[in-house]
Amino acid sequence: MTVAEVVAEPRHPTPLWSKNDRAVAGLSLALGGGLWAWGWWAASGTADVEETIFGVVLGVAAIGVAASGGLSWITTGRSAVRARQREVASVIDQRVAALPVCSAASNDAEAVVAVAGSPRFHRPDCLLVVGKDVTTLLSSAELLPPRIACEMCRP
Ligand SMILES: [Zn+2]
Description:
This protein is an alpha+beta fold. The chain has helices at about 5, 20-45, 50-100, and strands at about 110-115, 120, 135, 150. It folds into two domains: about 5-100; about 100-155, no CATH class. It is built from three helices and four strands. Zinc ion binds next to loops.
């Protein structure tokens, strides 16, 4: 597995909300809107207290119905996002585990390299030095402090 394959973004062609989720949210909002319009119609143009109270009750019910649809929309979306976060974390764990970093299959297990300006020395296949201009450290004296071993590849 190459580094490019490891860091490639997973694709999610499926939407966050299912058709059922969209239907529940859409119907709740539509029903809330309808109840609100009915309440408006019932309460407007009249001075009768009972009709006005009925309209207000319809308006409050409309807000509750619409809010429950919105809440359903948000909670199902959050749930889907969390599921994807767990999936991505799992994929990252699998891909990191598959990386050839620090593998015992190094071509030259004895060789260590360093990047100019860095105190750390690495295995030649360490991801922190791949593609960088490195110097092979030949003597064990070059590995003494202030040089330190890379914490990632542990040469
Ligand atoms: Zn390293």
